[in-house]
Amino acid sequence: MKEIKKVLFTFAAYDYTGIEKYLEKQASEGWMLKRFTGVFMEFSKVEPKKLRFSVTYFSKATDFDPKPSKEQEHYMDLCEYTGWKFVTSCGEMQIFCTEDEYATPLETDPIMKVNNIHKTIKKIFVAPYICLIMITMWNVVSAFSGLIYDTIEMLSNNYIILSGFCSIVALLLIIVEFIAYFRWKSKALKSAEDGIFVESSGKTNFQYWVAAITCIGGIFMIASIGGKILFCMGLGIVLIIILIVVGRIYLISFFKKLGMSKKANMILTTMIFMTLVIIIAVVTGIVTFKVGISMRSKPAYTYEYEDTTYEVYHDEIPFRIEDFMNARNDEYSTRCTTKSSLLIEYIEASQDTRYDVELDEGIEYTIVKVKSSFVYDMVKNSMYKEIEEYCEELADWRKIVKVDENQWNANEVYEVYAGEWSKNHYLLMFDEIIVEVKFDLENELTDQQKAIIGEKLQNLN
Amino acid sequence: MPRAKFQTLTEQMFYILLCLKNECYGMDILDRVPSMTGGRVNVGSGTLYNLLEQFLELKWIRETKVEGRRRSYIITGEGVEILNKEYERIKAQMEDYRRFFMEGM
Fold it and tell me: Is the pTM of this model over 0.80?
């Protein structure tokens, strides 16, 4: 037979009637509350008893108090005088019980009770929640502004998608919490005006946990699809959250046991967590940076030309000059970077001649493969706009013009012209692939070459 | 604590202040209020604690001594004034009632 059980605390902190009823039911089933950490309620096995519980809020108490303050002792003495025994406390929340069915309730003024709760809630929730709201708002805003100003960069970055998603979920959670509290408060005040203590809705604050679990699930889902690094990052985020929520409680009570003063405990706990967060941030930063460097390709060789050292790369690129024409040189430098996220794959590639040859030619292109069709238009508009802005900046009568797509076998094609002259700069739209390509060639492309390039791009894997 | 809220005293406030005409411990108040009112008014320990805090803040009462964990209080001149005002209000209410129901008939 189990002697001790731990139960996850799923009530809202202000739902005192709900907590009282729950504790009374547990006692009648032979489980007496022993300890409450804010996350878990610890019960020990006792004889089933009919007890009355009272949850009060003592706004001057904190988690950090090594022992009850003089004021709190006074408060507890007054409670004991009318038959209420102190059971346990968690920060501001003080839990008392009595066997006396007729004992005067600890609180006989419902309006004062609501005000007291409000004072406590304001103290423990408002400041951290406002901080959290500001941080998440900032995250959401920067994610969305990133989406507007740097759509493709943003969509190809799983990390931004992940943190944006988490921020939105967190923001929604906080808003839901706030609304729930203020609805409770107005209900409680209304019944207090009639001299009645508000009844608990009876519902445990379950949505909160469901949402939290969904959020953690979401992190894992995105992270596991997004590859090993991201998976580790997701795991890291979840661990940090758990560490901060649970570890903090144990750390505080550990310091309390050592007999540390309130101030010292507060400072030390805060310092330890700040250090931890900084260490984690730095380690994550270093890992990300190292991984980023190791993924970058190394030059195949270097050469000297007019007192400057140039690097030649031999990266694999999706398509080459040789694919659609007879190249005039034997040697090219090819560069390719790929960024991939849940939503898009973003490839930037170029093929250039060496500086020490006379016959200069090259291609430079950006390929975006859209994995989730709902971002297709976003990507398309962003790429179009970027070229449009580029044309305006050059101010040499350059403009982007819609041209015949059939030659390319594409859905839509735009071409950049300076006056009447084609600049050999195209935006090609296929079913799931959008490509911006600049050709630096001697001649304009023939229809046959366009068809080959179109064919090649559509069949990219 | 907004003063506006205390324009009229609740019964519990009234009797706590009344008790404190003579110096007494918090615990005494818990006993005296029901006995003064024949059990009609009860003050809970939590409510008493909070009201004492607020009265101290408003300087309606003051702490007289702290003996170990026990504290005693007494009403101040300001508190007496509040109590008198409340008395006048209740009296006026009573007179209105009397005039309306007894003489007016």
Answer: no
